[in-house]
Write a sequence for this structure.
């Protein structure tokens, strides 16, 4: 008797603090094809999962932002390498979500290229954003960008791979850490991506990915007092207004972008995740301006 | 040894090591003249290039906090008045300002800068009378910096595309700007100059206790022949501010003030297309290491907390001194405080003027009571303060704990909370352990230590071996609950453009 | 070397200049100005230190020291200067001329102004001045040794001269125009005081820059810290380039706000100057008469 091999199905979990836990709530939601066939059960992340992820992101922030930019650049590039080598897996994941082969391949290519693009920015945006300021007094004065901290990111609903990556990679390139809520309707590729991230050299907690519902999590994401900025690529006016209101609790920086903007390759996306720090120091000037010239 | 013998012999004759800073020679009053200063009995609203009575029909008094005498009364703008101002600003934006060549916009700003310089003394005296700050500061700091700010941004007007590589910056439209009472003219300059340079028009509300220099600036802007409506100045209190924030034709809000109000504004414009910058409160750490240039550090402490009566969002209100030098530093600081003169702000020798308002004085006094109750050691200089007007002696609290309210909350007065520390790790942790992040100070002779600190302190401005320095070319603004956006320098253009 | 002073604090030049600017923003008017002008007059070490000095010139200067402006109304109560400052060979003449007045005689010594002589010559130079009747000795430190880090040499030399001075008060000239920066000024001041200086003094007047305000501020701060540490008062003498009243008043403000009232007399503060006296007199006469003055009405000696 011919025995057909039964494929092993993957359990899709969450990505928090460099681990793949199930949601603490034990809840799930069914992810189906457009034809209604069950693809998998995704974790329905809870507010506590979000809270745990913020703790992980905060813990990771200090060492991530103080790594050398060159090192961050290499780690991002490593992610691109890992994605390239698992391109077919990503493409398959997108196809199972209903993409044509061509479209799936295009999005995977775009996603890899986006990571390469921002990898290159890691050790360059300082020179794009930084200035030496010609103050009138005898001081050396310069302004340079510094990572803002922990970002809560709502990835766009469409483009579940390139949109997802583009929603948080600029922030990561800029030395921030992030908790990202993946596309609700097409969440599965986010966990495949998480596995690839995990296999690249990212320290635990720098990138945390949740699957779940914005309608449930938006308030927690916007109001968390240990989150420094909120970046959102979904355009539900009621939800975004509510989030913007709640964000004021700790003067959170908020960025509500159209979904398409997530795929942009521009340092201005990275710039919004930076604080500008200005430093002053006296310049000793013995003998006045004449000395030395 | 001869030398030590000499020293010992002489030492015996002078056992008391106290320095006496009050002696026969004291400075006679040296008052800045007020004769040539013209303050109208009453000011209307500056809308569409002219002063007009408010639709509200209401006025309120502005007083001199040093004498409690009424200086003038100013209009209390209602929502209807604000609407007129916004309409004027929208019209000016559509009809004149956005049509003007950028270089010509710049020339108007240069004109304003020059005219402030010409009328500097008048502005300084009125600033001091209306706000209570010493004439030395308004004359040497506020007014020159205000003029310089216009001059700096004037030059940016026709160079904006070089500020934003790869982008075409465009103005946003009408900017609503709300400023505080601690640097009335300077904050007006910080707001108006970059807004106009980038092609926006403005509705600005000065603080209700210090409206006069903004109204004088309105006169000056009128005299500069700026197209009507490009700058509108409306006076009033919180409701006037709320009307600006809520106005649907305003697309940019810039606010400097308290964190509480900043949060309210952020909340109230949620869901709108309004761009927002906030410059809010602070509780800066000023950190003195044992290898610091101590005498300059003491001067930095004084500039940090007693500049402008401590009414400074970036005031160095938390002092951290390394254990080995804390006794020395505190002794030096107490000596230095003895030569600080508190009194008539119009006296050129006054170092600390009047607290801006009765209510602010009450707040400060409440915090002093809180500090005493919390068990911190209380110290004030021996100076006398005038019987009339709102004054507060320079005040220290020693042996403060990180959890004391006087170490956590912004007092906005001449009150310094002092803590000691042993290690760098400890002081960085304490310095950052606060919801604010506007500024910080570091004093040490060692360069590598400076850069360690300056990169790890979560604050928008870090002064190393100096404190409370400002310049139009230097970006200023906060981390965390101290707000977002920068004012000054190239970065100060960004809040006023869209791509 | 264990007797060298403890580590001196560093000095930030820009911060010191800012403090000076703040001191210079003080405005001295009316009574307080008159008080200060007279006080400054009474703090002057009227000085002539030139190769072409003669006995006659020294005698003239001594007369001027006692009679600053006899044309002034009596009720002005003009003081005399504090001292005259001359080379050792003129000490006897000065002493004789000033006999009976409160004006002291100060003599430079120790191979002034360069100090480039061996220590025994310097000691002999000092002894000669003291034997001739000098009340005060103005010595110079060995700047070369200071610059090359030989602090104990500088210390020992000052201590030796102090011993040679006997009862005469010792002023130690740091010649700050030849020191690197304010850090070194501060260090030299500390060394001088710990070695027994009664006064520390900025300059010889032969080197530019002579007294500058940041330098004087740094030295006053050193004096204050020394007093706090030991209980010993040390005097201060800026010298060279102080020729107008406004600058003199700024120095007095600096003393008042750094050291306090106890130093505001000629026991503890001096100006080493030659032309300052007439400018102060002109200012005093202006305050008295209300008329701007001309130099033609004030004798130059």
């Amino acid at each position: 008797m011919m025995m057909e091999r039964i494929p092993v199905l993957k359990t899709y979990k969450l990505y928090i603090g460099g681990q793949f836990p199930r949601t603490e709530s034990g809840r799930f939601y069914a992810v189906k094809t457009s034809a209604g066939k069950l693809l998998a059960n995704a974790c329905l992340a809870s507010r506590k999962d979000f809270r745990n992820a913020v703790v992980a992101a905060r813990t990771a922030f200090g060492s991530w932002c103080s790594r050398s930019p060159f090192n961050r650049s290499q780690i991002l590039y490593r992610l691109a390498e890992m994605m390239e080598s698992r391109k077919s897996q990503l493409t398959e994941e997108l196809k199972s979500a209903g993409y044509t082969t061509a479209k799936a391949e295009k999005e995977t290519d775009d996603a890899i290229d986006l990571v390469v693009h921002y990898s290159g920015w890691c050790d360059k945006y300082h020179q794009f954003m930084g200035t030496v300021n010609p103050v009138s007094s005898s001081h050396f004065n310069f302004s340079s960008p510094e990572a803002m901290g922990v970002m809560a990111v709502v990835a766009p609903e469409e483009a579940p791979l390139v949109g997802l990556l583009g929603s948080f990679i600029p922030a990561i390139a800029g030395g921030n850490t992030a908790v990202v809520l993946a596309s609700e309707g097409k969440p599965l590729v986010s966990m495949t991506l998480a596995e690839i991230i995990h296999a690249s050299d990212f320290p635990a907690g720098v990138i945390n990915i949740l699957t779940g519902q914005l309608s449930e999590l938006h308030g927690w994401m916007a109001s968390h007092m240990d989150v420094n900025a909120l970046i959102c690529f979904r355009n539900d006016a009621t939800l975004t207004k509510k989030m913007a209101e709640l964000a004021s609790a700790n003067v959170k920086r908020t960025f509500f972008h159209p979904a398409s903007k997530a795929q942009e390759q521009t340092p201005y996306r990275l710039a919004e995740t930076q604080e500008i720090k200005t430093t002053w120091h006296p310049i000793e000037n013995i003998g006045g301006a004449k000395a030395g010239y | 040894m001869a030398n030590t013998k000499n020293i010992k012999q002489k030492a015996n004759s002078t056992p008391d090591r106290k320095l006496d800073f009050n002696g026969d020679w004291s400075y006679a009053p040296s008052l800045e003249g007020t004769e040539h200063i013209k303050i109208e009995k009453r000011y209307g609203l500056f809308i569409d290039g002219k002063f007009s009575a408010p639709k509200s029909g209401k006025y309120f008094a502005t007083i001199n906090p040093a004498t409690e005498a009424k200086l003038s009364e100013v209009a209390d703008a209602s929502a209807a008045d604000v609407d007129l101002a916004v309409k004027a600003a929208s019209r000016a934006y559509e009809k004149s300002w956005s049509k003007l060549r950028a270089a010509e916009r710049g020339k108007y700003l240069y004109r304003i800068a020059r005219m402030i310089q010409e009328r500097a003394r008048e502005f300084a005296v009125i600033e001091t009378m209306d706000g209570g700050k010493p004439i030395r500061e308004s004359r040497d700091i506020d007014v020159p910096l205000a003029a310089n700010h216009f001059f700096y941004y004037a030059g940016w007007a026709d160079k904006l595309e070089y500020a934003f590589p790869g982008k075409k910056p465009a103005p946003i439209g009408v900017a609503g700007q709300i400023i505080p009472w601690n640097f009335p003219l300077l904050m007006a300059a910080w707001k108006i100059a970059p807004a106009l340079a980038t092609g926006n028009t403005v509705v600005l509300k000065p603080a209700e206790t210090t409206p006069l220099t903004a109204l004088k600036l309105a006169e000056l802007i009128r005299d500069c022949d700026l197209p009507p409506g490009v700058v509108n100045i409306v006076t009033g209190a919180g409701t006037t501010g709320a009307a600006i924030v809520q106005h649907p034709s305003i697309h940019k809000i810039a606010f400097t003030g308290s964190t509480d109000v900043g949060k309210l504004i952020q909340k109230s414009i949620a869901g709108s297309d309004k761009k927002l910058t906030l410059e809010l409160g602070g509780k800066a750490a000023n950190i003195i290491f044992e290898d610091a240039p101590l005498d300059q550090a003491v001067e930095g402490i004084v500039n940090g907390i007693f500049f402008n009566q401590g009414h400074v969002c970036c005031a160095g209100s938390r002092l951290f001194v390394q254990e080995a030098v804390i006794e020395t530093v505190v002794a030096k600081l107490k000596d230095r405080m003895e030569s600080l003169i508190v009194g008539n702000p119009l006296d050129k020798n006054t170092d600390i003027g009047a607290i801006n308002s009765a209510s602010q004085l009450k707040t400060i006094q409440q915090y002093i009571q809180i500090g005493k109750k919390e068990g911190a050691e209380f110290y004030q200089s021996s100076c006398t303060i005038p019987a009339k007007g709102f004054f507060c002696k320079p005040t220290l609290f020693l042996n403060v704990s990180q959890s004391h309210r006087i170490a956590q909350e912004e007092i906005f007065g001449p009150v310094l909370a002092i803590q000691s520390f042993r290690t760098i790790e400890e002081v960085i942790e304490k310095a950052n352990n606060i919801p604010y992040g506007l500024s910080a100070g570091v004093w040490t002779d060692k360069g590598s230590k400076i850069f360690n600190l300056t990169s790890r302190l979560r604050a928008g401005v870090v002064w190393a071996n100096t404190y409370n320095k400002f310049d139009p070319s230097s970006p200023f603004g906060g981390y965390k609950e101290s707000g977002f956006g920068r004012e000054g320098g190239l970065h100060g253009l960004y809040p006023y453009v869209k791509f | 070397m264990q007797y060298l002073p403890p580590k001196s604090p560093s000095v930030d030049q820009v911060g010191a200049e800012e403090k000076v600017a703040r001191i210079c923003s003080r405005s001295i008017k009316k009574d307080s100005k008159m008080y200060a002008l007279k006080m400054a007059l009474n703090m002057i070490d009227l000085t002539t230190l030139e190769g072409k000095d003669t006995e006659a010139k020294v005698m003239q200067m001594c007369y001027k020291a006692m009679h600053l402006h006899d044309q002034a109304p009596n009720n002005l109560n003009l003081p005399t200067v504090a001292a005259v400052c001359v080379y050792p060979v003129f000490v006897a003449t000065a002493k004789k001329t000033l006999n009976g007045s409160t004006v002291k005689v100060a003599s430079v010594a120790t191979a002034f102004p360069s100090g480039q002589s061996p220590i025994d010559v310097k000691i002999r130079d000092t002894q000669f001045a003291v034997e001739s009747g000098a009340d005060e000795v103005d010595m110079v430190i060995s700047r070369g040794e200071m610059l090359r880090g030989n602090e104990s040499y500088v210390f020992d030399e000052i201590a030796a001269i102090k011993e040679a001075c006997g009862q005469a008060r010792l002023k130690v000239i740091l010649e700050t125009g030849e020191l690197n920066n304010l850090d070194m000024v501060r260090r030299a001041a500390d060394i001088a005081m710990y070695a027994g200086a009664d006064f520390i003094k900025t300059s010889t007047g032969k080197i530019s820059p002579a007294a500058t305000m940041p330098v004087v501020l740094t030295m006053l701060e050193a004096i204050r810290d020394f007093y706090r540490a030991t209980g010993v008062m040390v005097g201060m003498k800026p010298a060279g380039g102080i020729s107008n009243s406004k600058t003199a008043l700024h120095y007095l403000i600096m003393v008042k706000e750094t050291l306090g009232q106890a130093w505001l007399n000629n026991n503890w503060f001096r100006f080493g100057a030659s032309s300052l006296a007439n400018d102060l007199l002109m200012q005093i006469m202006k305050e008295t008469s209300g008329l701007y003055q001309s130099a033609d009405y004030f004798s130059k000696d």
Summary: The interface with chain B takes residues 66, 128, 131, 133-137, 139, 141, 143, 146, 148, 228, 237, 240-245, 247-251, 253, 266, 268, 275-282 of chain A (CB under 8 Å). The mean pLDDT of chain A is 95. The longest helix of chain A spans residues 101-121.
